UniProtKB/TrEMBL annotation:
Top EC category: lyase
The UniProt record lists the keyword Lyase: yes
Pfam families the UniProt entry points to: ECH_1
Highest taxon, organism lineage: Bacteria
Keyword list, A-Z: Lyase
Protein name: Enoyl-CoA hydratase
Family: Belongs to the enoyl-CoA hydratase/isomerase family.
GO molecular function (one): enoyl-CoA hydratase activity
EC number: 4.2.1.17
Presence of the UniProt keyword Lyase in the record: yes
Length: 270
C-alpha cells in the first residue's frame, strides 16, 4: 500500500511508523487514520517485526486534529466509524474501537513523542504501551477548549495511566502539561534530551527485539490489558493456563539454554 500521510520502515526487527505532515505539525487527518491502521496491521502480521515505534516527523508528534478537517466534520462520522472491521477477531471486543486497537497488537508499541502531543495525538500516545518523550514536549488533552468531550476512549485510558484525579484535571482544564510534570504523574515512562530521544528509544526497542521472547511479550501484553475486566481469581487462572503453554514452548527452552550457555537467545516466538 502506498502511504500518503505516514512513512513506514522495518529495520533490525523494529517497525517505525512516522506521522508525516511536518508542515502541519502532523495534524491528524482521515488519510492518516487509514494509513496508521494499515501500517499497524502490517507490522502486527509481520514475523520479522518484534517491536513497533510510533513517532512524528519534524518538531511535533501530533498537534491534534487538522482544524480544516475538524471544521467540516459530520457528526455521523462518529457513528459510521463504529462499523470498522475488527482489527483482530482473536482479541476481546473492548479493543476493536476506531483508535483503541493498539492493545490487540501482540507486540510492544512504543510512542516516541518528539514534540507537541495534543488532542487526538495524545489519544494515540496513550494507546501505545510505552511513551518515551523529548524533555521539551508539551501535552494537552485540548478537547474541552474546543467544545468537545473526552473522546475515543481517553476517559477510560487516561485514568488508568495517571490516576482519576490527574485525569480529571487534564481533561477538564485542557491545560498545557510540561514534560517534567508528565513524567511525574506517569503520563510518560521516560524523558530524554531531544538529541538523544531517538537513540535511547531504539536502544530500548532493540533490547526487546533481541533479548525478550516474542511469545512471552504477546501474552504479558494481553494479560495486562485484560486485567481491568477480570477478578484476581480469573487473572490467576488465566496466568496458570498460559504458564502451562509457556513451559511447553520452544522459547522457554531457548531462554533457559541461552542463560545456561551464557549466549544471546535465539527466540522464535513459539
Amino acid at each position: 500500500m502506498a502511504y500518503q500521510h505516514i512513512l513506514y520502515d522495518v529495520s533490525e526487527k523494529i517497525a517505525t511508523i512516522t506521522l508525516n505532515r511536518p508542515d502541519r505539525m502532523n495534524a491528524w487527518t482521515p488519510i492518516m487514520e487509514r494509513d496508521v491502521r494499515h501500517a499497524m496491521e502490517t507490522a502486527a502480521a509481520d514475523d520479522n517485526v518484534r517491536v513497533i515505534v510510533l513517532t512524528g516527523a519534524g518538531r511535533a508528534f501530533c498537534a491534534g486534529a487538522d482544524m480544516d478537517a475538524l471544521k467540516g466534520l459530520d457528526p455521523d462520522d462518529i457513528r459510521r466509524a463504529q462499523s470498522l472491521p475488527p482489527f483482530d477477531m482473536n482479541r476481546r471486543p473492548d479493543w476493536q474501537s476506531r483508535y483503541g486497537y493498539y492493545p490487540s497488537i501482540p507486540k510492544p508499541v512504543i510512542g516516541m513523542l518528539n514534540g507537541a502531543t495534543a488532542g487526538i495525538g495524545l489519544v494515540h500516545a496513550l494507546y501505545c504501551d510505552l511513551r518515551f518523550a523529548a524533555d521539551n514536549t508539551v501535552f494537552t488533552t485540548a478537547f474541552s477548549r474546543r467544545g468537545l468531550i473526552a473522546e475515543h476512549g481517553i476517559s477510560w485510558m487516561l485514568p488508568r495511566i495517571v490516576g482519576h484525579a490527574n485525569a480529571l484535571d487534564l481533561l477538564m482544564s485542557a491545560r498545557r502539561v510540561s514534560s517534567d510534570e508528565a513524567l511525574r504523574i506517569g503520563l510518560v515512562n521516560r524523558l530524554y534530551p531531544p538529541d538523544q530521544l531517538r537513540e535511547q528509544t531504539y536502544a530500548y526497542a532493540r533490547d526487546l527485539a533481541d533479548f525478550v521472547s516474542p511469545s512471552a511479550l504477546a501474552v504479558i501484553k494481553r494479560q495486562l490489558y485484560d486485567v481491568p475486566f477480570q477478578t484476581l481469581a480469573e487473572a490467576t487462572i488465566d496466568a496458570n493456563r498460559e504458564m502451562v503453554v509457556a513451559l511447553r514452548g520452544s522459547d522457554f527452552r531457548e531462554g533457559v539454554a541461552s542463560f545456561m550457555e551464557k549466549r544471546p537467545p535465539r527466540f522464535t516466538g513459539k
